[in-house]
UniProtKB/TrEMBL annotation:
The lineage of its organism: Eukaryota, Metazoa, Ecdysozoa, Arthropoda, Hexapoda. InterPro entries: RNaseH_sf (IPR036397), Transposase-MT_Hybrid (IPR052709), Transposase_1 (IPR001888). PANTHER family: MARINER MOS1 TRANSPOSASE-LIKE PROTEIN. GO terms for molecular function: nucleic acid binding. It comes from Cuerna arida. This is Mos1 transposase HTH domain-containing protein.
Length: 270
């Protein structure tokens, strides 16, 4: 019976215990015992991921990650020169996470309940660039503004000015490296011409790989967690609170995640 159940499951992993019972004529209890005890199997749901990568995209991700590793080997101080950035929405109300709303209870008490809630329509687009020493530049997009190549070009102009004022050594040496993702506005010909014109080097970012972009896997989640569950009446309140929390992040944490954490160095290789 073990072999029969194993063969059926290998042919169709979505078969239920009841279907196996009916198809094979084996009692339900025996099917469960075979699955759990003999085959050491459990029924699980598919894990949600933002995007399923093709083989070409996986290979591209691996190649770029390897290239970045090679860069680090040739220049151990590379990430001290990296300025990384991205955009993200900040909401007037963003529901608490499941972990945030958890609480202790005794065995006799009923489990607490809460109504399902959704993000508010009041929101603003935050753009942040940072390096190992902290935030280099941040700004909020005007209401109704989409992040297109023309807008992003102006953002980069303001970023250059911020580097000149806040990171004079990098500005003088013209040695800083820009890291951003492959969003259409970032990778457009207009932006690439601007970067070439001003001798701004770029650190490659694999496509569809937010797990190796510090803004996505560290900065934005860290910034937004304290804001979840709070209500802000308008965009100005959102900006004030988001900016306060952003600038309150200790400098050593930026260095830890960007340089010492070595995330871009390859510890997150696929």
């Amino acid at each position: 019976n073990v072999e029969r159940v194993h063969a059926e499951i290998n042919e169709n992993r979505r078969l239920t215990v009841r279907e196996l019972e009916e198809d094979l004529g084996i009692p339900k209890s025996s099917v469960c015992n075979i699955l759990h005890e003999d085959l050491k199997m459990n029924r699980v749901s598919a894990k949600f991921v933002p995007r399923l990568l093709t083989e070409d995209q996986k290979n591209c991700r691996l190649e770029i990650a390897q290239d970045n590793l090679d860069l680090i080997k040739s220049d151990p101080g590379l990430f001290k020169k990296v300025i990384t950035g991205d955009e993200s929405w900040v909401y007037g109300y963003d529901p608490e996470t499941k972990a945030q709303s958890s609480q202790w209870k005794t065995r006799e008490e009923q489990r607490p309940k809460k109504a399902r809630q959704s993000r508010s329509n009041v929101k603003t687009m935050l753009t942040v660039f940072f390096d190992q020493d902290g935030v280099v530049h941040h700004e909020y997009a005007p209401r109704g503004q989409t992040v297109n190549k023309e807008y992003y070009l102006e953002v980069l102009r303001r970023l250059r000015d911020a580097v000149r004022r806040k990171r004079p050594e990098l500005w003088t040496s013209r040695d800083w490296i820009l890291h951003h993702d492959n969003a259409p506005a970032h990778s457009s010909n207009l932006i690439q011409r601007f970067l070439v014109k001003h001798d701004i080097n770029q650190l490659q970012q694999p496509p569809y790989s937010p797990d190796i972009a510090p803004c996505d896997f560290w900065l934005f989640p860290k910034l937004k967690i304290p804001l979840k569950g709070k209500r802000f009446d308008d965009v100005e309140q959102i900006k004030q609170n988001a900016t306060k929390d952003l600038l309150a992040i200790p400098q050593n944490e930026f260095k830890e995640w960007l340089v010492e954490g070595s995330t871009l160095k390859g510890t997150r290789l696929p």
